[in-house]
Amino acid sequence: MAINPKLESQLIACITEHQENVYRLAYSYVKNQEDALDVVQEAIQKAFAAAGSLKNTTSLKSWFYRIVINSALDCLRKKKKVHIVDDKAMELIASGSEDAYADIDLERALDDLPDMYRSVITLRYFEDLKIEEIADVLKENTNTIKTRLYQALKLLKIRMNDDALVEV
């Protein structure tokens, strides 16, 4: 299906404007620089391939974020293994950004969360999306997102407290 020039320019503008956030989002799932770049590239290809079927351009950002998340989850399913991030790689990703995980315990606790909870936490607190935007990205009801966010924070608190107890 051919993409109209106006939609193509809107998609290019969206991808360009959110490129760093999209990369961080992909990286938060795959924990590997090369895989994150592959996920972003695959998401861009999928977005252009499916753009002709997009009916509402007002949700372009949410639509693209959803493609990135799905591509990251596909990558994880293909790999079926955990990647450990070394300090040097984390510094390269952070490069002065305030969104980097400052606490390794928090990063581990986030990694242990099921995908549905990790996605909500990542989109809300690391990508700074509103509840309604998260609901749009994940194609869920806003009340479902609120519930998942509450449950995810509760799980994180339990895991962080458990880790603190183990260290003592």
From TrEMBL:
<dbReference type="InterPro" id="IPR007627">
    <property type="entry name" value="RNA_pol_sigma70_r2"/>
</dbReference>
<dbReference type="InterPro" id="IPR014284">
    <property type="entry name" value="RNA_pol_sigma-70_dom"/>
</dbReference>
<dbReference type="GO" id="GO:0006352">
    <property type="term" value="P:DNA-templated transcription initiation"/>
</dbReference>
<dbReference type="InterPro" id="IPR013325">
    <property type="entry name" value="RNA_pol_sigma_r2"/>
</dbReference>
<feature type="domain" description="RNA polymerase sigma factor 70 region 4 type 2">
    <location>
        <begin position="105"/>
        <end position="156"/>
    </location>
</feature>
<dbReference type="GO" id="GO:0016987">
    <property type="term" value="F:sigma factor activity"/>
</dbReference>
<keyword id="KW-0805">Transcription regulation</keyword>
<dbReference type="InterPro" id="IPR013249">
    <property type="entry name" value="RNA_pol_sigma70_r4_t2"/>
</dbReference>
<feature type="domain" description="RNA polymerase sigma-70 region 2">
    <location>
        <begin position="15"/>
        <end position="81"/>
    </location>
</feature>
<dbReference type="InterPro" id="IPR039425">
    <property type="entry name" value="RNA_pol_sigma-70-like"/>
</dbReference>
<keyword id="KW-0731">Sigma factor</keyword>
<dbReference type="Pfam" id="PF04542">
    <property type="entry name" value="Sigma70_r2"/>
</dbReference>
<dbReference type="InterPro" id="IPR013324">
    <property type="entry name" value="RNA_pol_sigma_r3/r4-like"/>
</dbReference>
<comment type="similarity">
    <text>Belongs to the sigma-70 factor family. ECF subfamily.</text>
</comment>
<dbReference type="GO" id="GO:0003677">
    <property type="term" value="F:DNA binding"/>
</dbReference>
<keyword id="KW-0804">Transcription</keyword>
<dbReference type="Pfam" id="PF08281">
    <property type="entry name" value="Sigma70_r4_2"/>
</dbReference>
<protein>
    <submittedName>
        <fullName>Sigma-70 family RNA polymerase sigma factor</fullName>
    </submittedName>
</protein>
<dbReference type="InterPro" id="IPR036388">
    <property type="entry name" value="WH-like_DNA-bd_sf"/>
</dbReference>
